[in-house]
Amino acid sequence: xxAFEEERKANLKKLIKSLxxxxxxxxKEYNYLDYNDEAIRITTxxxxxxxxxxxxxxxxxxxxxxEGVLPLYDKVDIPYQEKIKHYYYLATFDSYDYxxxxxxxFDKATxxxxxxxxxxxxxxxxxxxxxxxxxxxxxxxxxxxxxxDNVWNVNMGYYDEERxxxxxxxxxxxxxxxxxxxx
Length: 183
Hints:
This protein is α+β, with helices and mostly antiparallel strands. The model has no long low-confidence stretch (mean pLDDT 82). The chain is built from 4 helices and 5 strands. Strands 1-2-5-3-4 form a 5-stranded mixed sheet. The longest helix is centred in the N-terminal third of the chain and has 30 residues, at 3-32.
């Protein structure tokens, strides 16, 4: 890569991170003015996740929908990772209404991450920040534990001409085959 391409890449990365910080600040102000009527609880994140319990072929499935592309994992930039973690924890937790969404806790679950991209440039799904969504799902107690014995992960990618977004499904491991066919 040429020096100017490396510099451009570094500058774009800084701008993306700056947007995350700006978005967090703006949401804090938005909440301060009591404008955020989408959230179950007051939150500092936007957009919120959409949470929906489903019954597919007689078994329960929990769906979480997130706008945009999941950010790439960057193990070097800890403050940026903390912002990403903060966003997905709150986008999930503050969207989950414990009074309305009473599903059984999944003991042996599969979490299916379906990434929709509105561009055709190829991107590795394993470099995406799915960890914080999985941790948030555990935090709200949809899954009991997320160790390797209790949770499997599946990543799928598709093209969506209109918009980038991520649909996350939690399903019991015994129903995974049927659910994949359903998808």
